[in-house]
Write a structure and sequence with these properties.
alpha/beta, elongated, five-stranded mixed β-sheet, three-stranded antiparallel β-sheet, LysR_subst-bd, about 325 residues, 11 helices
Length: about 325
């Protein structure tokens, strides 16, 4: 017959191993020492291996088999604690899982900070995260595949979706430093960019079908995601708009340069929280919306962002020799 130890036996075994003696374990568990000894003996009989060396030692010492079993016992009892916490949370109304769709326009630092704190605040709640561009966020919320959405323009008016502006971001037209547009060293006109390849992200959601945003060139390369667009622009294969938060370090290092192009609309891009009216978020999802609102409040304006980049790129003034 296969061994079938009980959770109680494993708990007693773990307590004896951690306290160092049967008497200390009996006090910790508030049980008679004889009961502790009997439980361990039954566990050893179940497993058909000795867990402690008892002869010639004042304190029980784990055998090699006992050391191996100790890790298994810790893991099994740890999983039990996770299950108990999840059941307690469910009874209190906490979600078992939060599914969230986040736009690439949301600054990555804000995303990491929120998710780091979310893990600490709600350890029993699973997370299903989708990151995308354009209409993907609203599409996932409308279809019920995401509990909440963070980001994206409201591309379709729908009374079944509740939206609230919680912050902003903005796009910047950029190119690699060796790109022909970067070498003009002046304000650019439509005529300058018309015949240059512009990299454009295609909206997989279909909500923006037939609509283009800030597409100014006659030649376009369409890609599926912002990451590919970012890499191709850095490689000098074209120019295009990218979220400011995504290219902060590239602008500082000189890997990308900002294009002074008045025809490219660079106003603030609103970031919204989205949810279905018929499916209000639970405590964890509500907390996440509030956390994003708090962090996005401190996102710089476009003018402040440019000033910050310019200041950080200024070379340090050397100290005069004494």
């Amino acid at each position: 017959m296969l061994p079938n130890p009980t959770l109680d036996q494993l708990q007693v075994f773990l307590t004896v191993a951690e306290t160092g003696s049967f008497s200390a374990a009996s006090r910790a568990l508030n049980r008679a020492q004889s009961v502790v000894s009997y439980t361990i003996a039954n566990l050893e009989a179940q497993l058909e291996v000795p867990l402690f060396e008892r002869s010639g030692a004042r304190q029980p010492k784990l055998t090699e088999a006992g050391k191996a079993m100790l890790e298994d016992a810790r893991r099994i009892l740890g999983d039990l604690q996770v299950m108990r916490a999840r059941v307690k949370s469910l009874k209190e109304g906490l979600e078992a899982e939060v599914s969230v769709a986040i736009s690439v326009m949301v600054p990555s630092k804000a995303v990491v900070d929120v998710l780091h704190e979310f893990r600490e605040m709600f350890p029993s709640v699973s997370l299903n995260l989708n990151v995308g561009e354009l209409g993907m966020v609203m599409d996932l919320v409308m279809s019920g595949k995401a509990t909440i959405g963070i980001g994206g323009a409201v591309l379709k008016q729908d009374d079944s979706v509740v939206t609230e502006r919680i912050g902003h971001s903005f796009m910047m037209p950029v190119a690699a430093p060796n790109h022909p547009l970067a070498g003009l060293d002046r304000s650019l006109t439509l005529g300058d960019v018309r015949d240059e390849v512009q990299l454009v992200v295609t909206d997989a959601s279909g909500l923006t079908k037939g609509r283009d945003f800030n597409v100014l060139s006659y030649k376009t390369w369409r890609v599926s995601d912002i990451t590919t667009k970012h890499q191709l622009i850095k490689a000098g294969l074209g120019w295009g708009g990218l979220p400011a938060s995504l290219i902060h370090d590239d602008l500082l290092s000189g890997a990308l340069v900002h294009l002074d192009l008045d025809a490219y609309e660079q106003g603030e891009y609103p970031i919204y929280s989205m949810r279905q009216l018929a499916n209000p978020p639970g405590p964890a999802a509500t907390w996440m919306i509030d956390a994003f609102r708090t962090r996005l409040t401190y996102c710089p304006s476009q003018a402040d962002f440019h000033a910050q980049i310019a200041e950080l790129r200024e070379p340090a003034i050397p100290l005069a020799a004494e």
